[in-house]
TrEMBL record:
Pfam family, any one: Myb_DNA-bind_4
UniProtKB keywords: Metal-binding, Zinc, Zinc-finger
InterPro entries: Myb_DNA-bind_4, Znf_RING, Znf_RING/FYVE/PHD
Name recorded for this polypeptide: RING-type domain-containing protein
Domain of life: Eukaryota
Keyword Glycoprotein among UniProt keywords: no
Keyword field contains Zinc-finger: yes
Domain RING-type: 166-201
PANTHER family the record matches: E3 UBIQUITIN-PROTEIN LIGASE APD1-RELATED (PTHR46858:SF5), OS05G0521000 PROTEIN (PTHR46858)
Length: 212
């Protein structure tokens, strides 16, 4: 009795292994797997090289643009053609997904979720207050009598403008307002390292320096 192999995609049967491996469906699967492996390897390299330069970036000795250029060139040396802009975009996606997982797992009652690169990113950010703030502020709810036109962002700015120290580094005075939420709780240096507001967790569209 002959052994037949069936393709899960096209449902065709094959007697010969080489014929099965070389038919279009299998080629597509192999190409997809190869791409996935390449993306994972490039991502792990990106994380490792960021880790090596994290201290220089956090203290201001190296601008992130310089780091992205450096990582892009190193990736090209390994056969990966990613521009510095693509490297920066990939890093933002990694950081956002990592923070979402941490926020989800830190909420009581939620079932624990895992992230593909969580272990690697934990080594960089597990104790980083820019990713996990030392404490989280809660804005006080406004009553209907306190609400005026365009008051949402104005009230948020007012409620947090009295804070004397950045809620992340607990050292410098806060001088950065986030759009769209309007919170003023961090210094510009710490703000440059985060994507979401540490108060309301709303995505930061723009960071505006203020002078007091």
């Amino acid at each position: 009795m002959k052994t037949l192999m069936q393709c899960e995609d096209c449902k065709n049967f094959f007697e010969d292994w080489k014929e099965f491996e070389n038919h279009p469906c299998r080629k597509n699967v192999k190409e997809t797997q190869t791409k996935e492996i390449a993306v994972r390897e490039a991502t792990l390299a990106l994380i490792e090289w960021y880790k090596e330069n994290a201290s220089a970036v956090s203290c201001g000795k190296m601008r992130k643009k310089v780091l992205w250029d450096k990582i892009s060139n190193k990736l090209k040396g390994y056969g990966y053609t990613y521009t510095s802009e693509q490297v920066a975009g990939r890093w933002k996606s990694l950081l956002r997904a990592y923070k979402n997982i941490r926020d989800h797992n830190n909420k009581s009652g939620n079932s624990a979720k895992s992230y593909e690169f969580e272990k690697e990113l934990d080594e960089i950010f597990a104790a980083d207050p820019a990713v996990t703030p030392k404490f989280t502020l809660e804005t006080k709810p406004s009553t209907s009598s306190e609400v005026t036109p365009c008051s949402s962002k104005t009230n948020q700015f007012t409620e947090t403008s009295g804070i004397e120290k950045c809620v992340i580094c607990l050292d410098k005075p806060p001088n950065c307002v986030y759009a769209d939420c309007g919170h003023l709780v961090t210094c510009m240096e710490c703000a440059s390292r985060i994507l979401d507001c540490p108060v309301c967790r709303e995505a930061i569209i723009q960071k505006i320096k203020v002078f007091k």
